[in-house]
Design a protein that fits this description.
The chain has a 4-stranded antiparallel beta sheet. Strands 1-2-3 form a 3-stranded antiparallel beta sheet, with no helix packed on it. It has a single domain, classed as SH3 type barrels. The protein is mainly β and 76 residues long. It starts with a helix and ends in a 7-residue tail after the last helix. It is globular. The longest helix is centred in the N-terminal third of the chain and has 7 residues, at 2-8. A hairpin with a 2-residue loop joins β1 (13-19) and β2 (22-27). It has 2 helices and 7 strands.
Length: 76
């Protein structure tokens, strides 16, 4: 189940940079590209708002932290 996989994910997706010729995800403070590895997990896809990792045949989907993207919403 995808929800269970997301709950077990020990990773924190902090930011995503999408440019025409490169995609970078910041996970746990590390800059990663598709194909890079983090704690035995391989970055399989970087898309707007989410990153897909694979570890030991298990798919892990990370969604961007919405509270980080709403820094200018006026609340304090």
């Amino acid at each position: 189940n995808g929800a269970e996989q997301r709950e077990r994910a020990p990773f924190r997706l902090q930011s995503i940079l999408l440019a025409p010729e490169r995609r970078i995800a910041i996970i746990d403070g590390q800059r990663l590209r598709v194909g890079d590895r983090l704690d035995n997990a391989e970055v399989r896809a970087i898309e707007p708002g989410r990153v897909v990792l694979e570890r030991a045949g298990e798919r892990i989907e990370l969604n961007i932290d919405t509270h980080l993207t709403n820094a200018n919403d006026g609340s304090r």
